Amino acid sequence: MRQKPTKRSKIELYASVVEVIKRYPEGARITKMSYGCGIPVDRLKLILQSLISYGLVQTMRDEEEEGVYYVLTPRAFDFLDTFWKMKGFLEVFGGNISQEFRL
């Protein structure tokens, strides 16, 4: 029998989005992020608003293509480093980041 996938916590969603943006140092477009994270664009826009307000992501405008690109701030790299460390610690002690950090 197939096991039902667990629901991702907000912090896991944030980490997922930041990881996808990290793949594009020149900046990521929202469509690429949506495919990379598996999150619909309308929901992704809300997550990006939060990440911008937390100082993890910045927007860049491309005048030639008239588009918006999202880039990481140095704080985002600190967030990812801390996230992966905490996830590792919780797994060692039998915890689950989805259960421990419901925001």
Description:
This protein is mainly alpha-helical. It has a domain at 10-76: Winged helix-like DNA-binding domain superfamily/Winged helix DNA-binding domain (Arc Repressor Mutant, subunit A, Orthogonal Bundle), CATH 1.10.10.10. Helices cover 55% and strands 12% of the residues. The protein has helices spanning 10-22, 30-37, 41-53, 74-92, 97-100; strands at 57-62, 67-72. The chain has a two-stranded antiparallel ribbon. Strand 1 (57-62) and strand 2 (67-72) form a beta hairpin. Helix 1 packs across helix 2 (30-37) and helix 1 crosses helix 4 (74-92). It is globular. The termini are far apart. The mean pLDDT is 86.
Key words describing this protein structure:
103 residues; mainly alpha; Arc Repressor Mutant, subunit A; two-stranded antiparallel ribbon; 2 strands; 12% strand
Distance between the termini: 31 Å
Q: What is the helix tally?
A: 5
Q: What is the molecular shape?
A: globular
Structural class: mainly alpha
Relevant CATH superfamily of the domain at 10-76: Winged helix-like DNA-binding domain superfamily/Winged helix DNA-binding domain
Q: In percent terms, what proportion of residues is strand?
A: 5-15%
Tell me, what is the CATH class of the domain at 10-76? Mainly Alpha
Architecture (CATH level 2) name of the domain at 10-76: Orthogonal Bundle
Mean pLDDT: 86
Sheet with the most strands, sense and barrel status: 2 strands, antiparallel
CATH domain topology of the domain at 10-76: Arc Repressor Mutant, subunit A
Sketch the topology as an H/E string, one letter per element.
HHHEEHH
For the secondary structure, the number of strands is: 2
Largest sheet: spatial strand order:
1-2
Fraction of residues in helices? 55-70%
Indicate the low-confidence ranges by residue numbers. none
Task: Round the Cα radius of gyration to an integer and report it.
Answer: 15 Å
